[in-house]
Amino acid sequence: MNQTIVSYLAQYEFFDFLIKIFGENSLLLTTLIFAIAAGVFVAVAATIGGLGTYAERKISADIQMRLGPNRVGPYGLLQFLADGVKMITKEDVMPNSADKFLFYLAPMLCLVGVFATLAVLPISSGFTLVDLNVGVFYLIAISSLVGLGVFLGGYASNSKWSMLGGMRGASQIISYEIPVTLSVLAITLTAGSMSFGNIVSQQEGFITNWFIFHNPFSFLAFFIYFVGAMAETNRAPFDLPEAESELVSGYHTEYTGMRFGFFALAEYIEVFVVSGVAAALFLGGYNLPVHVSIDILPIQFIQVTILVGKALALYYVIIWVRWTFPRLRVDHLMSICWKYLTPIAIFNLIGSAIWMVAFRGQSIVQILGH
Amino acid sequence: MFLNLLFIASAILTILGAVLVLTTKNIMHSCVFLLTSLIGIAGLYATLGADFVAVTQVMVYVGGVVILMLFAVMLTGGKDFVSKAQNLLGLAPTMGNAFTYVMASFVGVVFILTNIQLIKRLGEFSKLKNNGSFVSTVNELGMLLVKDHILAFEISSVLLLGALVGAAIIARPRKQ
Asked: Do B52 and A132 touch (CB under 8 A)?
């Protein structure tokens, strides 16, 4: 039932060769493939996160008519590596009155929560690490570890700015989880499945088959999801937890070196993950416009390119929004979530359910086509 | 084999977390260890084939309950709330007076008696064990919730709605 990268690779001839080496149904072989694949996923995600910082600086520079980083490597592309080396070699300072155990734990929790979501990110039809049949739910659930990391980071630093940032972060992430989950639920209802593979395969074909154009409610759900995801990843205009004009830098004020790097990396990878999920749930995921056999290996790489391309396009929009809109006030942030987004998302969910019953799950294009 | 390994790992995580919750003196650390224990329980559910329940466990406890507990602890004293009272062995805080222990032993007796009833039927359960392949429980669970267990489902939703309205009434600003 659960399609994994191992069960996908098992159909190829070279797998038989591996089985000959490791023996039939080898636990070692499965573990090894998963370990290598997970390693590749994490490495690629970390690189994308690192390049995210570069993209952020370059795009912001573009918006503000500056040049941005342009010294290290061609077009300043290697800037993130230089930053990484700088962070690793920095002194690891910990405040005297900090809670040592929680101070060390908090950045790890953030990073673990983000990396755990990569397990179900539908990168292509075969290369997805595991296509759980509760994949969407798992992703929403496990990403709440990030909120815990932010909160504990703020608490453990024992500084007033960190404390305020951590509290804001936790309350914001918990609050915005509700509209995000409700809008994802609308898509789950439309697809009739919680598995990413199933949801994406239902959007196969041309742009009109994408779930964003399925019905008016799913169109609305995309924007609720996008706004909520931006708030959940603490991106501007919702970056209250790290509001630099009032809280220095919020929950990671007291962190130095690579521990701060972990927080930053977790944020940038999470932005990529939520963009990828938005692409998979609403924008057709890894599907090609034409029907192809998924058994050919190069097709898998094309699918990866398509999904990553869509995700990066959304990534650009998120950065663009950051450098365009001013930051919200705390009470406005909460009233947007509870008084606007949540009621709209509930209405949206009921609307989707009525649509599914009334039109027997047909999309708006199918209805107009008849 | 693999499932057994995961089961043992989850069980160790659960028990270790629970023991650390009891023995640590800092209440914030206790909350974090409780998180370990709850994730271990999610792992136990997952290895038993209850995928939806496992994810719900993570969703409800990690995303909600533990963060709320941390909030509550922090707003009512945080790390200053360190219990000085010790039991005879000097290992853990005493956690309550004689009445607490009487109630706890009463609950313990009830718990053991009900568990004996469950253990009696252990032989029947082991026959139900599937051949190790996972089947999606989501559809079945959804159908059961709106068919056989609709009353429990509705009662719990009314209860939660009541709690939500109550919280809103308590938290709303008073008119002077």
From this structure: no
Average pLDDT, chain B: 80
Establish if B62 touches chain A: CB-CB under 8 angstroms: yes
Domain map of chain A by residue range? 93-369
Quote the pLDDT of residue A287. 81
Q: Where do the domains of chain B lie?
A: 2-82+97-135
User: pLDDT tens, A32-67?
Assistant: 888 888 898 889 888 888 888 888 888 888 888 888
Q: What was the ipTM of the complex prediction?
A: 0.81
Query: For tokens 């909030």, what's the residue?
Result: B71
Contact A141/B59, CB-based, under 8 Å?
A: yes
Q: Which residues contact A38 (CB under 8 A, 6 or more apart)?
A: A118, A119, A129
Q: Spelled out in words, what is the top-level CATH class assigned to the domain B2-82+97-135?
A: mainly alpha
pLDDT tens figures, A160-213: 888 888 888 888 888 888 899 999 998 888 888 888 888 888 888 777 788 888
Amino acid at A154: G
Q: Which residues of B touch A137 (CB under 8 A)?
A: 52, 55-56, 59
pLDDT band at A1 (very low <50, low <70, confident <90, very high): very low
A150-166 mean pLDDT: 85
pLDDT in the model for residue B107? 93
Tell me how crowded residue A229 is: count the other CB atoms within 10 A of its CB: 26
